[in-house]
Structure prediction request, 146 residues.
Amino acid sequence: MQAFNHKKLLHTIIDDLQSLRMLSKNILKDIEQQGELSPDVTNQLSDLIKQLKVNLALDSDADKMHLIIEGLTTRDHILYKIIQSVFDTLATTATDRIKKCEHAECYLHFVDTSKSGKRRWCSMELCGNRQKAAEFYARKKKKSRS
Ligand SMILES: [Zn+2]
Prediction:
């Protein structure tokens, strides 16, 4: 019975995460297309938030006291953490700094914290170098043909 409940919870959370991913894609689409959230996406977020049950706790173990927000259940806690991150990003980031990675095969978005605001890739080490290598070989190929 215990294993069954665990598996059921896992499937519920996977479904929730897939819904949240779809909602995040809609948020990014709104930002790309109109620079702000549409009423439809705002309502979806609002509906999701209403479902979550959280609890406030005080953490005084360290030198300072911290207010901790915890989901009442595992599901509440996981979804709360992700939604909090979405809200933090939207509250602290100009929408033109939320960008899609320019690498053709990458589906990630990132927050451009560069001074110039011209960052193109989610990660220079991964996508940036892959892109530059591809451009280098494309130029080399073109040169050898002419
Ligand atoms: Zn990328």
Observations:
- The helical segments are 2-34, 39-51, 74-92, 124-145.
